[in-house]
Structure formats: C-alpha cells, structure tokens
Amino acid sequence: MVVLNKIYTKTGDHGETTLGDGSRVAKHGMRVTSYGSVDEVNATVGLARLHASDEMDARLAAIQNDLFDLGADLCRPDLHKDAEAEYPPLRMIETQVKRLETEIDAMNAGLEPLRSFILPGGSALAAHLHLCRTVSRRAERETVELATMESVNPQAVKYLNRLSDWFFVAARVANENGTADVLWVPGANR
Where is the Cobalamin adenosyltransferase-like domain (predicted)? Predict the structure, then answer.
C-alpha cells in the first residue's frame, strides 16, 4: 500500500530522483524519461475519458491502471535482481498485452478497411485518442532506447507497442466506426 502524506520531499532539488529499488539517478536519465512519458500517456488518457461513453471509459480506466503498473515496472531496474527484492516487483505480464490484442480485434472487426491515412481528428474523443496514440509511440521509442542500455521487461515494450495500436483503432471507433474519419488527401493544398 502506498501512503503519501507529504507531497514534496526536497530530495530532487539537485536533479536526481529515486528509482523503485532505492537507487538515485539523474532526472534526465533514460529510465526516468521512459517512465515519465508513460505518466504523460496516462494524463492524456484522463483527458480522453472526459469524452468517452461508459464502455469506452471502462476500457480507458483499465489502461490507466495498466500504465501505473508499467511505470512501476520501468522504475525498477535490473530484472535479474527481482528474486532478491524485499517485495516482488510489479512487472507487466503477457495477459495485459493479450487483453489489448483482444480488444483491438473486437473493435477492428466492425470497421471498414482503410483506403487512406487518417488525420488526427474528427470527434473530440477521437482527437484525444490520437494524442494518446502519439504520446504512447514516443514512450515506446524511449523504452526501446532504454532497452539498448539497461534491462527492460520485454512485456513492457510489447504493451506500449499494442497500446498505440489500441488507441488508433479506438479513435476510428470514436469517429462513428470510421465513417467520420478525417482522411489525408495527398497534395491537396499545392
């Protein structure tokens, strides 16, 4: 259980922060950048939820919870020391990835195939979901970069990859099942 009764600690005043294993690192480090972007995705999902139906809101709420799990996973370095930890570290697991895949397939089943690229927009919900998509793509890129330097749970990378796809398909659903998608017209303004 997390207890936060003091919000500021002053421990980060010199540009460092504490990771989940207690180690201190620079706030500009790649691991902090990676889980910081995951936190940003979560904030954009909160905006999208303001425009969502009950069913979509429930799915987005589940994603927000997963994103906290993902942040907890990413803030805990060195997968090889998990067995030595006082408490088992929270790690992303395959079932979280599979749930996204199942939901993507279900949403996509009711959509016509794309015949053009889509511009981010349409309904308010779709526009916010496209923002979620682009921020999650950045979080994925940063997490993949982190994985070239340090150990990263492979399920964390898979989850981020599926998540941006989930947001894309959900945005199409939010645009009247794709019928109100805003299509790119190549060279339209030449």
Answer: 7-174
